[in-house]
Amino acid sequence: MPSLKNGFLFIFLFLSLSGFCKDGKTIYYNEDFFITKKETAAYYIIIDPEAQKDRIYKYYYISGELYWKGEKSYVDFKMPENDINEGLCISYYKNGNKEEEINFMHNKKNGEYIAYYENGNKKYEEEYLHSKIEGFSKSYYENGKIKDKRYFEEGVHVGTDTSWYDTGELGGTRFYRDGKKHGEELKWHRNGKLKEKGSYKNDKAEGKHYTYYDNDSLKSLVHYYNGKLDGTVMTWWETGKVKRNDRFEDDSLMEGKCYDIKGNEIAHFDYKIMPEFPGGEGKLMVFISHNIKYPVSALENEIQGKVVVAFIVDQNGKLKDISLYKSLYPSTDKEAIRVVKLLPAWTPGKLDGELVDVSYHLPIRFTLH
Questions:
Q1: Mean pLDDT of all residues in 25-36
Q2: pTM of the predicted model, to two decimals?
């Protein structure tokens, strides 16, 4: 069964500035890497021209552990967002394990990129060429098992995408063309039985889509046209009895009936319900506008435009797999991700009365006024 339709919301941000202070040869930064006092600092750097003449700089956690080290061809101690990184740069967790290894060429990712979990296992593994992903991109579960493998050409998602369960069983395959899902998608249960089967055209569900219980019995048959429900939507209980018989036209319900597990007709309920932020989209807009900060480097360079953050609202309403879907500028990308990670739990989505994980894309617009 394809994921529910992505929700979209535009947030407009306005100009903001913040001050700074420094203490001798030690500069202190807060969590967002704005200069602050020692008492409110999360990180610091010791300015030592002699030690830094080879262009290698080191930042530390306020508790003294190494946080980041790497080469810089340009340094702005007041606004580290303006720094230009070169070569291999490494960040660390407080326990001393690596968090990220990134290769730069004039502040653009170029070469191998590896992210790690705090336990030392790999989280992501990618190759970049002039800031664009090139070749295979792999992600891993915290236990070290591979999670998915994708392929990119000049930053565009193409070819077969394969995913696995955290215990190693094959989870699914799908095909991408020009960055969009195109062709057949297959998913399997952990026991190897077919779970879902359906086709896509330019990222939109098309034709008949099937789902199955892990005993091979049919769970649903849904008709799509151009990404919208169009035609019959039939679902079954695991016993084989009909659960739903709906008819849609252009995503609108024309008629339908629902049944209990014994076959008795019951009050009709919606086939799909999107997850919702507490209080609705208006409250989501307010939350983001109150918590986001326009990055100073983006202000100085007059950067404005849209960042799109992708995430999944799980069956408990919690956000997971938060990632960048569309980039604008390094500091705006980072800020958008930071704020999305602050979002509280949502009311989860439902499909045929069952709580489900739902993919969501949240556009955030940075606008100068």
A1: 89
A2: 0.82
